[in-house]
Amino acid sequence: MAEASDEKFRQVMDVNVYGPMAAMRKAVQVFLEQGQGGNIINVSSVSASHQAAGPIYGASKAALNAMSRNTAYMYKGEKIRINVIAAGGINTEIATAMGRPNMDGYTWLGPVLKLSPAPGEATDIAQCALLLASDDSAYTSGDIIAVDGGWTSF
Length: 154
What we know:
- This protein is 51% helix and 13% strand.
- The two termini are 25 Å apart.
- It has helices spanning 6-34, 55-74, 94-98, 103-115, 122-133, and strands at 38-45, 80-87, 144-147.
- It has a three-stranded parallel β-sheet, with helices on both faces.
- Strand 1 (38-45), helix 2 and strand 2 (80-87) form a beta-alpha-beta unit.
- It has 154 residues and is α/β, with parallel strands linked by helices.
- The protein has five helices and three strands.
- It has one domain: NAD(P)-binding Rossmann-like Domain (Rossmann fold, 3-Layer(aba) Sandwich), CATH 3.40.50.720.
């Protein structure tokens, strides 16, 4: 945390909090105008509660979870469903996009990573999204669903 810059904080919050908030706000407005309800699926991270990816990233995903659950509650009467997929370790290019990690944090995280399940694939997230988008989950709203290979179970 001591090395975290205000610029990095704002950048992460803009992408992970403001972006989804703006999209949710617009979607809710459209759903209300149409009067037929709607379905929003946000993608978060298990790092919101399992602090493996640093304080700023974890805080941004916790904020997204809170906004999603609150908005689902506020608009349940209008049949607007909002759920969150909390992704665990998924094979993506995020590690290369982030650049060099904080080595102190990475060293501390090493033992945790050794216990982690093998990374999942993007298709694992897509399958959960398809379920949440379908009528098979019509009674599911305000939930945070971990797609993490059991990572949050330890």
